Amino acid sequence: MPPNFNEAETRAKLIDPAIHQRGWTEDLIKREENAGGLYKVRGRWRRDVKHADYLLRIPVRGGSEPIAVAVLEAKKNTLPPHHGLEQAKLYASADRLNVPFVLCSNGYRFIEFDKSTGVVSQPQSLVQFPSPTNLRQRYETYKGIDLEAEAANPLTIPYTGGDAVRRYYQDAAIRAALEKIAAGENHVLLSLATGAGKTRIAVHLLKKIADAGQLHRVLFVCDRTELRDQALGAFQNVFGNDAQPVSSKNARKNARILIATYQTLDVDTDESDANFFIQNYPENYFSHIVIDEAHRSAWGKWSIVLTQNSDAVQIGLTATPRQLTPTVDTPETKSDLQITADNLAYFDEPVYEYTLTQGIADGYLAACEVQKGRVNIDDTGITREQILELNPIDAITGQPVTAEEIYELYEKTSYEDRILLPDRVLAMTQDLFNYLIESGGPEQKTIIFCQKDSHADRVAAAMQNLYANWCKQNNQSQCDNYAFKCTAASSGNDMLPDLRGSSTSYFIATTVELITTGVDIPRIQNIVFYRYLKSPISFYQMIGRGMRLFPENNKIAFTVYDYTGATELFGEDFISKPPRTISDGSDVGLPGTDGYDDETVKSIEVEGFDVFITDAGRYIVVDREGKSVPITIEEYKQEVAELLVEQAPTLNSFRTIWIDPEARHDLMVSLPHDGQSVLLIRDMDNMQYYDLYDVLADIGYGMSPRTFDERADAFSYKHDAWLKTLPSDVSNVIQAIAAQFKNGGTNELESQYIWHVPAVRQAGGLRSLKTIGDPNQLLKDTKTRIFAV
């Protein structure tokens, strides 16, 4: 009968010695972790960190950085060797650790999944575990590279500043790019969600190439001055003064890293002649080119940057999913599809993808809640007869308009463009303002996407007035500059630093699309759609403004208030077939106006409509087969309940799993978002003072939840008889341990610092428990009884 080891004991006593015998020394083994989902307990931030047990790395030459090629998942010795395979495959897939070999072991035998063949091996003894030499040969064959060749040298360069400067998926993306370059390819596409750190990836990717002596001159191209300045700071942190910004007055020919905008290079519009670029940078002037936000500009505008440097290594960065599905045939969707097709045709498939939902599950991006609202007149449209009854006027002159100047029907997509509706603006802003009040107060950093510039003006004014009235009614002092317009036609972009940095002003920014890309504003708590969208690319960029975490401001999630159905663009599924040649943009229409002629059609203004908003439900964004989609909270809870009951049919079996840390970990990983969305539901249902055990037991088994305090207090009187059977000092220690549940639930009971807590130590601590038996068993008994009440 084998001993009953837990997972940690299995690793230490069985797996470690066996793989060391096969050549896997400590320097070749890494324990890769994610950040862990953020959650708050009694005012203190916690993280639920997940990891790969062993990331196996192969040596190339002495003193160089080993290269990750495999992940090994360990399970306790009483489980079959294949038990952790699916979990290990998840960690090792192309969108996680980017390694081709996945192994799993119970300490006696192992199995292997080889991504290059798609074959899962039969169980084998650990004495047959593959050696570093074996995996190196197979890795080189699979990737088509020779690690001794000069082209592969960047793969073996260590990070400047050590591994702490990167996240696990950033390292995976960098390795994926370098692998493709080492295989002789010079077009590389990386697709990562907004907020995942694409610029950081570019910096450290280029630094490895530079340190390998293979970088001559780099051009980093982005979409605006704001983004250029952000990139400049990131590059100068690593490259110092070798990185310089390009301006219309200074081409920076002496710099090694040139950071420029499309506008500066004169390649930003179809009418641009690229004179600045052509005159200053001869053909093949750059050895490396990075196109930031590769989805932003039609290829006809800036493709000359690539075609004039055909010998360069060219890297495209994008936050737009490779898969897009148009729901309607419009100029916007045609443009999106063409850009996607052009990217795939030129760069080929992304060598690495990291999605929004992966970032949420890993704890690197803020979780996303969706609150939908429906506007009554948006569902019906407005007829000419209805308009004439309310005395419409010309939106510019204020003069009355005739029936002949009014269309027979105005649909929702023409609202605030061809027809201005002050009642609609007021109803929507009042509804949003009420949500802000209910969710913490009006002073929340918020971006509202509007139909056009004049609409942004009116929304900003309405929000300002609502705020002023609220302050007066509640005897609150007003902050300066509460709501402001931030569009290309205003000076609002000058206020972006205040929106980003100030915690006491500049809360509500109304815009059309100025803040859709790249600008890093972690404080943003809400994204609001008052604008109808047809472009999935634009939608994902707008959503991206809320993705960054900012726990210093209590932000681990953000809310999307959707009044126009924009969130229906989540999870669209389309893979555009790459054309044989890159388009020149001639067949790509500009965003339309529903057939209206901008030059001749008047905008009218009408007051007097009865406008009201109805609640269309709360949603949470989850992963569905690799796609981010919103589902209702009720749907999510039902899904969680079904998964719980599938693995633990009864509350008692769920309790048994919960008190075992390893079994609980496996259970949480099986839930959507690796269980991170359960944390969001706890916040949304105002259950911050409940342990996740109670949240899940309520969802799955209908158990009445108890707060931290209620559960800890109940332990003492419910189990008084048991406590009295123990020596008094032991009883005192156990009650002191149980009391720690009030501070944070399950995690407090399992903290490695439990024996150093003053109350536990004063009661007798570990020494007292050892007098009557195994302290670990007593702790397990205590947990069982805490959750039994």
Describe this structure in words.
The protein is an alpha/beta fold. It folds into five domains: 7-143, tt1808, chain A (Alpha-Beta Complex), CATH 3.90.1570.30; 150-319, Rossmann fold, CATH 3.40.50; 366-374 and 414-614, P-loop containing nucleotide triphosphate hydrolases (Rossmann fold); 626-701, no CATH class; 708-788, no CATH class. Helix content is 37%, strand content 16%. An eight-stranded mixed β-sheet has the order 23-24-22-25-26-17-28-29. Strands 1, 4, 5, 6, 7, 8 and 9 form a seven-stranded mixed β-sheet that branches. Helix 4 (168-182) packs across helix 5, helix 5 (198-211) runs parallel beside helix 6 and helix 18 packs across helix 22. The longest helix is centred in the middle third of the chain and has 21 residues, at 453-473. It starts with 6 loop residues before the first helix and ends with a helix. Residues 39-45 and 573-599 have low confidence and may be disordered.
